[in-house]
Design a protein that fits this description.
The protein is an all-alpha fold and about 100 residues long. The chain has two domains: about 35 residues, no CATH class; about 40 residues. It has five helices and no strands. α2 packs across α3. The longest helix has 23 residues. The protein is elongated and about 65 Å long.
Amino acid sequence: MSQSMSKSTARQATVRIEIRCTEEDAALIREKALAAEISVSDLMRRAALNRKIKTPTDKKLMASLLQLGGLQKHLFNQMQDSMTTDLSKQFSDVLVA
């Protein structure tokens, strides 16, 4: 690859592959691509090549879980001076749940 050519330019998808499917399957494929916020072509490539298809929901859920974990750690640290055995058990129960 020459230095003037970007990586994305060198790997541009130029070959077209057509598939046949039912209207129902086509609708489901389009819905999955829309939910993942990727093109149908990208969805089909990832599925065929066993690559991960991450949905925005997964990313948002993970961000929320990380935020909640951070808040719990903050609360735990703030309560260290007044921590009782019962409170400590409650924090532990939440972590294991």
